[in-house]
Every structure is written in structure tokens, then in C-alpha cells.
Amino acid sequence: MATALVVLAGAGIAFAGGALDNRGGDGNGPARSAVPRPDAPTLLAPESTLTSLAVIDIHGVLPADLERGGADRLRIYVNDRLARERGVPAEASFELNEVPLAEGENQIRAALVGEGGEGESSARILVVRDSTAPQIRITRPEAGATVYGGTETLRGRTEQGATMEIRDGRTNDAVESTVADDGRFEASLRLQMGNNPFVLSSEDPAGNRASTRFVVTRATNLASISLSVSVSELAVGDLPSTVDVVALVRDELGRASGGAEVTFGLSPPNRGTTTYRSITADGRASWSDMVVAGDDRAVGIWLVTVLAVMPSGEELRGDASFSVH
Fold first, then answer.
1. Which CATH number does the domain housing residue 154 bear?
2. Torsion of CA 66, 57, 107, 129, to 10 degrees
3. DSSP class per residue in 179-228
4. Domain of residue 70, residue span
5. Last residue of some domain: 102, 129, 156?
6. What is the pLDDT of residues 24-38, one digit of tens each?
7. What tens digit of pLDDT does each residue of 273-287 get?
8. Which of 18, 263, 304, 318 is in Cβ range 3.0-4.6 Å of 227 for a Cys bridge?
């Protein structure tokens, strides 16, 4: 009968008929092949990549050929930092709620983890968090300024891409306004005597809102213009003749206004209007030696008009007349 030879050599046991080590197998290599890492999931871009919120819900899809035993954890990274981790869902589509966002840009990716380690990352999606409310700056009229007209142009600026809503603080009626892409806005305000409150509200593309209250004070307007003509009547036989016209202009505070642009007009009964332009000095503008000429067609009422444009933009008008007989 054959006898088996057993030799103890360290941790191995050798048999005369062959060899077997403690790792299993036939001694020609490892018993198991390397476990592959799971494929990357797919993240779905949110409806809006701009938000004011501190968290966001992430949606995605698992790899089509994923074996349930090949991955047991799903990880979400924000700016390469682990933000959320959960077990692999049973359905192909998945959702992770309230993934935290940092202020500014957030690069978000996902990866699966299995027995072979963490797999490839998904393509990144970008979400920008902006939690800063838009600023509202009013450039006209200046804060604390007093105006005298029944209307006033409001101008200012808010955040680029933001909307602007203006409401009358007394009636809550909307005031028509325009806002440019760069945030500049403009509106025409109708004013009553005294304080006129307005509420301005702005909302930026991320959904942040801001509002401010602005008061425009309209004072009693003492602006005036008077027009005088050196004659009240002329005889047609005395034509041609010259006439002096003088305009006296006062500003909103009742003071003699300098620097107002004045346009005089002379309208004969049967001819076109002649104009003359001047600038006030100490509230006075004149059209000296205005020529009145003609024949029998000159008989009738001659109308003299004046238009003064104040430095504030307000317009004042006046008229007078004389006759030719």
C-alpha cells in the first residue's frame, strides 16, 4: 500500500499527490478576479440654475446596466466636497432633497460606491446661489429736494436683469415705469402739493426682493411770466413801425429768473408767425424794435406770444396783443 508523505513547511501542507495553499484555488493565481467599479449616474439639470435658496433638490438616473450588487451607496458632491450620501434607490430615477448650496457657483456631481470602490463621477451641473437682495438707488430727484411742478421724472438704478415696480404710496396705484437690461429705470410721477410717497420694489433673477420708500415734496409754485407791449394800437398809415416787447420771468420761489430760454412770437392777422429768441437776465428778456409792417391787410389784431423754458425744465407761457386800424 502506498504511503502519503506529509511535510510541514510553514503555513503550507504538501501532499505527495499535489499541492494546495490556504488561499484556495489550484495555486496558479487568485481565486477571484478584481471587482469592477460602478458606472457613473446621470444628473439632470434643474429648471433654473439660479436660486436664492440654501438647498436644492437633485434629480438623476442610475446607469442602465447597473447590477444591484455592484453598488450600495450614492454620493453627491458639491464643489468636490461630499454633501449627501444615501443607499442606492430601487428605481432607476432618483431624487435627493435639500442638497446644501454655497453662495456663488456650485459644481455638483454624483458617484456610486460599490465593493470595488467609488466609481466614475457624473457630468457636473452648475447651480448658482445668489441670496443678496438687489439695491435700489435713486438718482433723480435728489433725496430731500423740493420740486415745484405737477410732474417729475424719477430716475435710478437697480441690479442688472431685475424688475422694477413703482406704486403711489397714497393710492397704491401702479406707476408706469421702464427698466433697461442694465438695471436703469425711469418713471414719470404725478405730484400733488405737499409730500408724495412712492414705494419702489425690485426683484432680481434669483428671486431676491428689495423695496424702498421715497418721498417727493412738491411746494407751492410761484413761477410766473408777464408780457408787455409798448403800444396798444397803431394806424395803418404809420406803418412800418417798431414796437418793444418785454417779458418778466420769475422762478418757482418768486425770484427774478436768470438764464431762462425765451421765445417771442409775432402773429399778424393775415401772415405767418415771426419768432425771436432771447435769454433772461435778472428775470428780463426783450424784443426791441420789433418791426410792424404791411398794407391794408395788416389791419386787425396782432398777437404777441412768449414761451419761457426755466432751468428746471418747466415751461411758462404768456401772450398780449395790439391792433392796427
1. 2.60.40.10
2. 170
3. E-TTSEEEEEEE--SEEEEEEEEEE-TTS-EEEEEEEEEEPPP--EEEEE
4. 42-129
5. 129
6. 444 444 444 577 889
7. 999 999 999 999 999
8. 318
